[in-house]
Amino acid sequence: MTVLLIHSHYGAAPQGYAADPGVLVVRERELTAGHFAAATGLLTTTHLDQIGLLQHQPALQALLDRGGRWFFNGHILREFVEGLGRYVPLHQPRRADLAMTRLFEHPIFVGIEQRSLEENKGVAGFYGRGHNPLPDGAQAVNGIGPNLVPIDWDWALPAGGRMFSHAGNDLGGMGGESGDGALLTRRIIAWCRGELP
């Protein structure tokens, strides 16, 4: 089971993903429909060229239609899949607007304290400052602020496949390359492979 990681920035791919032999790292400019056809899962980072990905939309849809999974990091600005809405930033957020609440015990987050993700060196907001609108039928996983805006959600698509949206910085990088960050990276890969529900 191959997980395709679209490498969208200069420099090396994130170590936790690149070190896994089941993750195929492909630079965005070298991406072909064949890469999608050979994959069972897809990982994209906040650096994704969303306009560029639109040219691969049929291959992406085919991956999902055959039951593949897509872990999306960042702000959705294009409707790659029917039912997706555009990212909504928080308006002038205060500290209370960045407080995180677990809304659903998703296997990616089991045993990980929200507080360890909410702040980085005592500063809140690195996890995310807005949300990708929850599609019909999606399960909100983590919410932020008093309105519990769904910053993370998991969606079983009507036509097949699954999509996990994290509307912030790359989730695998939260908590560093060890500890919770390393655990999140391993679980994200496992989820993309279909090894976690």
TrEMBL record:
Domain of life, source organism: Bacteria
Protein name per UniProt: Uncharacterized protein
Annotated organism of origin: Devosia yakushimensis
